[in-house]
Amino acid sequence: MPKKRKQKIRVGWFTFSCCEDSTIIFTELLNDHWKEWKELFDFRHARVLKKNNVLDELDIAFIEGAVASPEHEKMAKEIRKVSKKVVAIGACAVQGMPSAQRNFFDEKQKEEIEFLISRFKALPKVLKLSDVVKVDVEVPGCPMNPEDFLRKVNLLVKEFV
Ligand code: SF4
């Protein structure tokens, strides 16, 4: 019988500006891995999975999406402060695009969206996660590549066992 871990690995799953397709991939992976992950992970903060979420101390924080507002910026910094490892999930978090399309708008397009930028109190430019906080691991892809995600999660898990 496998030895019981003293403490589960505390994880969080966070979503900023994006279409959340990597979150869907993550929940699909849960179908296959929930038994093993239930023993391994304490999902402290994952709005997609539960209502009551805590942002206290995390071993691994997974962040999907680009940073598009000062609120995202603040949240990213808070997550970084309480997390041992931060993982950027999907192309939007890793490189900003495609969520950062408005960064490449011409002057006329920029004028057209000005009222939206101000209504949603958005940043003048959409940022990739590493523009705001230190990122330890990247899982690129649009959406993220599930095999790459699993490989990197398994490597991270080894650091905590
Ligand atoms: S990387 Fe692609 S799939 Fe992921 S949030 Fe961005 S647009 Fe959506």
From TrEMBL:
Recall the GO molecular function terms of this protein's record.
iron-sulfur cluster binding; oxidoreductase activity
Q: Which residues form the NADH:ubiquinone oxidoreductase-like 20kDa subunit domain?
A: 39-153
Quote the InterPro entries the UniProt record gives.
Hydrogenase_assoc-protein, NADH_UbQ_OxRdtase-like_20kDa, NiFe_Hase_small_N_sf
Its keywords, alphabetically, are: Oxidoreductase
- Its name, as the record gives it, is NADH:ubiquinone oxidoreductase-like 20kDa subunit domain-containing protein
